[in-house]
Amino acid sequence: MFLLSITKKKLILFLVDVIIIITASFLAAFIRFGRDVGVIYIQEHLFVFLLTGIVFLVFFYIADLYDVKKDFHSPKYVGEIILSGVLTFIISGFLIYGYRLVMPGRGVFFLYVGGVTSGIIIWRYVFTHLAKHLGFKIRTAIIGVGDAQKNLVRKIEKEKSSGVELLGFVSTEPSIEVDRFVKLPVLGKIEELENIIEKYQIMQLVVEDRHQITEELKNILIRCFFKGVKVIDIPSFYQEHWCCIPLAQTSQEWLYQELARKGSSFISYVYEQNLKRLVDLAGGGIGFILFLPFFIPIAIAIKLNSKGPIFYQQKRLGQKMEIFYILKFRTMVHNAEKDSGAVWAEKDDPRITRVGRFLRRMRLDEFPQFLNVLKGEMSLVGPRPEREEFVNQFLKKIPYYSIRFLVKPGITGWAQINQGYVNSYQGSRDKLEYELYYIFNHSFFLDMGILLKSIKIVLLGSGK
Predict the structure, then answer these.
(1) Whole-angstrom Cα distance, residue 407 to residue 454?
(2) pLDDT level of residue 134 (50, 70, 90 thresholds)
(3) The pTM of the whole model exceeds 0.85
């Protein structure tokens, strides 16, 4: 059986991208100078091709070209690839010719960038075609027919490019009635699982929660491991496919075990205790320096637009629920909550000034928080810091909400780039599912990925 996980598919996309980039560099040199001279040319300009290739890969990531569930046949993603090529041409050209590095001929450079862009468009088209083919999908059966399993089926069926071929349920009850809205058959009973696997060539089994299954079922699943079948529980399935942890389908024991696993990881410990703070200091310092030229024009715009101070300080809860004061550019009228108290900002909120609306959309109001990062109160990446008034409500209503305070809050975060700004109880609950994923999986590479995606949000003005 041939099983390709989400991670392996992303790796395939990335490796073929690298091959296309390398191939395009040789083709550009060979077309321009011939094979013998072309090889020498590549050697002399290796740094330039390497630099441009890295810029390409960064823009491919920012453009979501490694999301294997996307339909790359869509004109939108063809446009994203072309835009990535154009931006790579501009930025790499600026770095190479502006700083007068070992400069390649403009003709070769143009052929190289054009070749990579064309190659990636063709490769993504081929990948989407393969992903839709049943032979490229994971043949999956679901153990049990409860609400958690039915909700999972509905979520999978909404995504045509999920990479999962759902075959049906395996019943753990003597008799079961499947919801008429879930168009999947019951393949058989749990006692027949090994025969069901052989009959339907099942590659993956999904169980509800690995910490809540019976000893009898564990013994059956252990035998399935020897048949090469992947067994995954619903919270882990959500992590792998949607990068979040479903609150309704996750037990306290599951979360405890994940926290224990995360705490025992040496690499995780080194990053959290040492490297992450160094990254925050370096990134916070660079961000603050880059922000300085914007300070005066933003300050003038705020003062001309409305009365009141330039900056706005607000009490927030940070790591371990410690109180600190977050610093932002003022985007609302002065004393906006004098009569109402703590309330969420609404769409088209009349309290937001004209300049403030622009600052929020471009996320420019957050820039002063680099000072909070340098002071150690915040991190570059983490869950957004919440107000004490809202936290007190969420702790009573949202399960496991306190877990988000195990890490420092951030200027940007996994929930921010996936959910954006929310102003409701349900929105905060949904965000927590992404925040829990970040807490259990955060690493240097995830943090770098979040920062890159945040740059896209700022440039496109798709902030709150």
Answers:
(1) 19
(2) low
(3) yes
- Output the pLDDT for position 103: 66
User: Who contacts 83 (Cβ-Cβ below 8 Å, separation ≥6)?
Assistant: 63
Please identify which residue in the block is written with the tokens 């501009």.
90
Decide which of 3.30.70.260, 3.30.565.10, 3.30.360.10, 3.40.50.20 is the CATH code for 137-242: 3.40.50.20
Q: Which amino acid is at 258?
A: E
Q: How many residues does the chain have?
A: 464
The total of other beta-carbon atoms located within 10 Å of residue 335's CB is 10
Task: Name residue, tokens 């629920």.
Answer: 321
Over residues 370-379, the pLDDT tens digits come to: 999 999 999 9
- Residue ranges of the domains in the chain? 6-132, 137-242, 266-460
What is the pairing mode between strands 323-329 and 311-317? antiparallel
- Mean pLDDT of the region 171-196: 78
For the purposes of burial, counting CB atoms within 10 Å of the CB of 411, is it exposed (0-12), middle (13-18) or buried (19 or more)? buried
Burial of 252 (0-12, 13-18, 19+ CB in 10 A): exposed
What is the spatial distance between Cα 56 and Cα 66, in angstroms, rounded to a whole number? 13
Q: Which residues pair with 316 in a beta bridge?
A: 324
Position 463 pLDDT exceeds 60: no
Name the DSSP class of 183: -
Strands 410-412 and 379-381: parallel
Residue 256's nearest CA partner among 400, 160, 394 is: 400
Q: Mean pLDDT throughout 214-222?
A: 89
List for the chain the helix, strand, coil content (%; round to 5).
60, 10, 30
Strands 138-143 and 311-317, by their bridges, are: unpaired
Residue 102: which pLDDT band, with cuts at 50, 70 and 90? low
**With 70 as the cut, is the pLDDT of residue 345 above it?**
yes
Taking all residues of the chain, what is their mean pLDDT, rounded to a whole number? 88
For residues 125 and 423, the model is more confident at 125
Which residues, in sequence order, are CB contacts of 368 under 8 Å at separation 6+? 291, 311, 327, 328, 329
Structure tokens at 286: 């660079």
Round to the nearest angstrom and report the end-to-end CA distance of the chain. Answer: 46
Q: Give the separation between CA 30 and CA 88, rounded to whole angstroms.
A: 22
